[in-house]
Design a protein that fits this description.
Structural class: mainly beta
CATH class: Alpha Beta
CATH architecture: Alpha-Beta Horseshoe
Shape: globular
Number of helices: 0
Mean pLDDT: 92
Number of domains: 1
Strand order of the largest sheet: 1-2-3-5-7
Largest sheet: 5 strands, parallel
CATH superfamily: Ribonuclease Inhibitor
Helix content: under 10%
Distance between the termini: 35 Å
Order of helices and strands: EEEEEEE
Strand content: 15-25%
Radius of gyration: 13 Å
């Protein structure tokens, strides 16, 4: 199933972390993980080469790191209502397909 999954909705589950096995979701295009308790973005997100939409609204993420730039297919990124105090200088520099970035209420 991991190789065929294109959309995963895990919103509102109070998750504190995501498993490293996310790299197995090679065809994932949409990940909805809003309203959890995530504090960091796992570097494994960098493996999701087909990801188009990533919704991490209402988590507890404090830092956005450079590995985000490997998500070059990403078109929509929602990091609103987190606790972001630092964004690495080049975190979004390679996201050439990004059309929507939401960072409100951080």
């Amino acid at each position: 199933m991991a190789h065929t999954l294109v959309e995963l909705r895990i919103a509102g589950n109070l998750l504190r972390e995501l498993p490293r096995s996310f790299c197995d979701l090679v065809n994932l295009e949409i990940l909805d993980a809003k309203r959890n308790k995530l504090t960091v973005l796992p570097a494994e997100f960098g493996c999701l080469q087909k990801l188009l939409k990533l919704d991490l609204e209402e988590n507890q993420i404090a830092k956005v790191e450079n590995f985000m730039q490997t998500l070059q297919t990403l078109t929509h990124l929602n990091l609103a209502k987190n606790k972001i105090a630092h964004i690495d200088e080049d975190a979004f520099s390679m996201l050439k397909n990004l059309v929507e970035l939401d960072l409100h209420q951080n």
